Amino acid sequence: MTPTLFGRWQTRLFLFATVGTLVTLPFFMGVISSKSGSSYFWVLGYVALFGIGWDILYIYIQHFRWDRDWPGAFQLIAGIWEGIFVLLPIKLIGLPGVPKEGFDLGIFALHYSLVWLAIYLASQTLMRILFPHWRFRGGQLF
Fold first, then answer.
1. For residue 58, which of 15, 12, 104, 5 has the smallest C-alpha distance?
2. What whole-number distance in Å separates Cα of residue 108 and Cα of residue 117?
3. I need a labelling partner for 24 at 20 to 30 A (CA). Which of 1, 97, 107, 120 fits?
4. What is the pLDDT of residues 46-78, one digit of tens each?
């Protein structure tokens, strides 16, 4: 599938709102970490929001590929870069909703990795099953 920019945005927001929320709930409730609270949802929101901008760059880069496609491995690797991009402003200047003081890098890495892996797996499996025409519409759900 070659996603369109609008399709990438729809898919990203849908997966973060559903799969991302489900993975974040145990962190929010304090089941996985002793530090519970809404900061996990703020991080989830920042990753989704910054990703909207990154998708513009990804669409531009994919035009240089001979097949104009974005392989799943690139999506997985992009998750590393996006995690670093969200982590830097949190650690350096702080972001609203995410306290700079007492920020635990290990818990962030665990939360971010689980969210990103779940979203990656859902995009490669569940989306193709639940939305069979999604692949043929450039990633657009509606």
1. 5
2. 14
3. 1
4. 999 999 999 898 888 887 877 667 777 888 888
User: For the whole model, what pTM was predicted?
Assistant: 0.87
CA distance 122 to 116: 10
Give the residue carrying structure tokens 């849908």. 14
133: left (phi over 0), alpha (psi -120 to 50) or beta: alpha
Q: Indicate the number of domains in the chain.
A: 1
The per-residue b/e assignment along 17-34, b for 16 or more CB within 10 angstroms, e otherwise, is eebbeebbeebbeeebbe
Residue 90 belongs to what H/E stretch? helix 72-92
The boundaries of the domain holding residue 55 are 5-137
51 inside domain: yes
Total residues belonging to the chain: 142
Closest CA to 15 of 128, 93, 110, 96: 128
How many C-beta neighbours within 10 Å does residue 57 have?
A: 10
Concatenating the DSSP letter of every residue in 28-59 gives HTTSS-S--STHHHHHHHHHHHHHHHHHHHHH
What is the rounded CA–CA span in Å between residue 120 and residue 19? 10
